[in-house]
Amino acid sequence: xxxxxxxxxxxxxxxxxxxxxxxxxxxxxxxxxxxxxxxxxxxxxxxxxxxxxxxxxxxxxxxxxxxxxxxxxxxxxxxxxxxxxxxxxxxxxxxxxxxxxxxxxxxxxxxxxxxxxxxxxxxxxxxxxx
Amino acid sequence: xxxxxxxxxxxxxxxxxxxxxxxxxxxxxxxxxxxxxxxxxxxxxxxxxxxxxxxxxxxxxxxxxxxxxxxxxxxxxxxxxxxxxxxxxxxxxxxxxxxxxxxxxxxxxxxxxxxxxxxxxxxxxxxxxxxxxxxxxxxxxxxxxxxxxxxxxxxxxxxxxxxxxxxxxxxxxxxxxxxxxxxxxxxxxxxxxxxxxxxxxxxxxxxxxxxxxxxxxxxxxxxxxxxxxxxxxxxxxxxxxxxxxxxxxxxxxxxxxxxxxxxxxxxxxxxxxxxxxxxxxxxxxxxxxxxxxxxxxxxxxxxxxxxxxxxxxxxxxxxxxxxxxxxxxxxxxxxxxxxxxxxxxxxxxxxxxxxxxxxxxxxxxxxxxxxxxxxxxxxxxxxxxxxxxxxxxxxxxxxxxxxxxxxxxxxxxxxxxxxxxxxxxxxxxxxxxxxxxxxxxxxxxxxxxxxxxxxxxxxxxxxxxxxxxxxxxxxxxxxxxxxxxxxxxxxxxxxxxxxxxxxxxxxxxxxxx
Lengths: 130, 513
Prior knowledge:
The structure holds two protein chains of two kinds. Chain A contains six helices and no strands. By secondary structure, chain A is mostly helical. Chain B is mainly α. Chain B has two domains: about 350 residues, no CATH class; about 110 residues. In chain B, about 65% of the residues lie in helices and about 5% in strands. Chain B is built from 24 helices and five strands. A five-stranded mixed beta sheet of chain B has the order 2-1-3-5-4, covered by helices on one side. In chain B, α3 runs antiparallel to α6, α6 packs across α18 and α7 crosses α18. The longest helix of chain B is centred in the N-terminal third of the chain and has 27 residues. The relative contact order of chain B is 0.10. Chains A and B meet through α2, α4 and α5 of A and α5, α6, α9 and α10 of B.
């Protein structure tokens, strides 16, 4: 619970900093929307890889690697899904995109329910810079 | 030195000598060879027993260097940076205007000739509330930073933490990477970041590589080409053929499907990528707008040596993996004069930074324990930072603010259905993005359909007004020509003495005949 609070607090702080340049409504939309669309899908996909990897790198996977991979995966999944949904006639609106990604996230969580608890995700996101 | 080490050291010397051939003047070449020799001896010495652990927090240094070097050129400049800026601006706007759909690819617009990956992302950022400038410049800096962090991730994965931090540092002080940003090769930057993540996932043998590599294919064809080529060679030499075969198959299917709406983007490229017709180093027309390898060796000299050492180390360790083939194939592409070979220098610089970071991490263990060694490292760090910022501070936009203002004013001073000829390719992207008119540009966009390459040269060089008029008569009216301050063919002078032209502003002529 404490970690969820930290995460939300972090996003709120970013929103407040950005509000020096933009309106509150826009900054909250940008910060939370960006996190939800451009980071979370990739992060959930990748979240099982936490400790030292099979390839023998003793340092394991750190937060920077996780951040980069989450971002790359989210970008790719987002672009691919939006492109294919638009091919079958789904309009590219923010509501539809959020719906698509929410569906994807629910699928992922359902698929990995046994392996992945939400507290593990929180730990990943809010974990200390190691 | 063992016999094997002697052979490898000899190979290193040959490679270094080949690179040094591009260096001028002779004093620079000599110092370079001397430095290379010294580093070579240090590298091939016995492995240091004491392993120095670089603090992870030092990663802050390259992050700060990247942010400062990318933001400084934007401050106080009323004219945007870049060469492709206008093209990206126009396409981002075209995609945003078409929302909630994709643009009409059958409308004959030049959007047909572009991979759409970047613009899909731009659409989503637009939906979140970001404006064109934030997407164009802010996110370009963000992706450039991600590219650096991508290098860190890959090097950490393939080598170790020390090498990762050092490779990230090499990337941050690379003038080539700064120039890539300065020219605003946006797709190139995003695609290279994706390619690094793909390499990371390939090492992990993860099937998550499929969406990332497929999206890479939808963002930038050149980067996808070098990725595909390297993956294919790795597949040939790999024992785990099943993994490469399955992932390669799905990557290809998904990547190609990004071109369902605009297959011309790939099909138009095929006749141009003819290995036999294009492998010719003298073919400057297909070299791509970037500096050539001789300039590259000058500005990357101080880490190119280390990259060769890293490459040699891979040979020594018989690590014929993805990084090895990337370095080798990229070098071959550049030296063979393949299609857009100068633009492949950007890709080569990334793998050079990766291998250089690793080689430096090995040398630093032997150097840092001594006082002189620490001084040398300090000189190296400060010298390279100085070298980069000297370049950053002397960087100016490619066109003047007066030229851009005149291009912007064309929307008011010319008719909506007017055609506008770009006098030289230097101005084409700016006219395309900022004039709001149909652009006829040498070798670019959709309206350059009436003249061959030879006829463009006739248009530029002829002193005969009738011949020039005959060429211009092929186009519909109203027809304008923009002649900027860079005027190598003295068109302003030629048009001023030709009664069929009317000067409507300082740099714009109307063809009236």
